[in-house]
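Review box. Two proteins, two foldings.
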Amino acid sequence: MQHALGNVITAMITPFTEDGALDIDGTARLASHLVDIGNDGLVVNGTTGEAPTTTDQEKALAVRAVREAVGDRARVIAGVGTNDTAHSVELARQAEAAGAHGLLAVTPYYNKPPQEGILQHFRTVADATALPVMLYDIPGRSAAEIATSTLIRLAEHPRIVAVKDAKGDLAASARVLAATDLLWYSGDDVLNLPLLSLGATGFVSVSGHFVAPALRAMREAFVAGDVATARKLHFATLPTTDAIFVTQAAISVKGTLNRQGLPAGPVRSPLIPATPAQIDGVIAALEASSG
């Protein structure tokens, strides 16, 4: 399972046309580009992909376009998380039919279910298809965490194989890693190297739109035992991450990709376009890290 979902995974934006429609050709071209620069996995229809404002039909089209563009050069992981279990099941089955290699399911948000409800939700989604499932633990967005005890119980499900960890609690991560065989992915770029040190497999990254080569090199250095090089490479990515997260990530990533001439297009409301200064900040960080 070590490579079943990839190691360097970018949570990709969803390109739109200038009039705000799904840009299927742009989605395929961006996916190919991201694989070309070093990603071996792509999350489609995640937070950075503006999933809250894309339709179910658009989600299926995006998954199919990415899968056709990258084939088996990278794993295609479809975001199917909602705060409605029945809807998540529908999205999971739709993603499987569209060719996804795996599913990403975020903790149900806003309605704040108790841990037993979270447990049952994820088990139901995992039962809906034959695909491996990565859980997404991000209480800063969902308002509810996946508790350590819940993660340990969820690890018993044969198709729940991984966690995207954006909780920012290294102690909790260590306890789950010690107690389970779950594949662990950093969901917060500033913690990529610290989570590798605890046994993480890789990253589900936003900055991977731009610095996938450095992320791959950092991971390879760490696995090879060259911690000093891994640390140097990790530190070099931090200014780019900081610049991206000056605002909501889809905003800054799309603005920067547009500046670079890559497919992106506008964001959908309630997101707003990146300012020139925000884009300049990301470009400057990228130039500094490559200099």
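Next protein.
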Amino acid sequence: MPSKRYKESAKFIENGKSYPLAEAVVVLKKFPRAKFDESVDLSIKLNVDPKQSEQMVRGTVPLPHGTGKQVRVVAFAEGAQAEAARAAGAEHVGFKEIIAKIKGGWFDFDIAVATPDAMQEVRKLGKELGPKGLMPNPKTGTVSEDMAKAIREFKAGRVEFKMDKNANLHVAVGKASFEADQISANARAVIEAVVKSRPSTVKGIFLGSCTLSTTMSPGVPVDLKEFLAVVG
């Protein structure tokens, strides 16, 4: 049963209409506010075959205005790289002792980064990290020779996007308290990054549908025509 706030928010959305991104954000900002600072989420449906590995869409993108939340980083590193990770602000730094904690059910972090040398052991956490989308991967910048740089970027607002088994992407692009132009710039950065990640084997229209919503609100349909000219 939709809440009263949800129903009130839905009244601002014109039935059957898709809004240019900037207008979608204006509509979103009209919604009644919750008692907490809700996340603003971008959801995109892709016209790809999720069963084909070569059509997987995944990557990272820096948000111009950050995510508005503290990102907790765990770093798998030793020696000088471990010291660099601590200096860059990683909340948890270590190697085999961190692996043991995760195998024991500990997941008090948002991002996991690792040095290439550490990955031989970290890969053994496939069953633990894989389903949660936390396994370090070179494609997303979470496996790096420069731990300090990787950690600073994620702390500053670099976010990962990864298609799920139904060809959908969900990315947090800010907080409801952000100014409209900040939300718009962040969402635009994500959409353009997704367009540029289009697999070469995908034919026809790549972006299916898109909505912008807060944690507790209905989705505002976004018109994607303005992004058709973005070159991958």
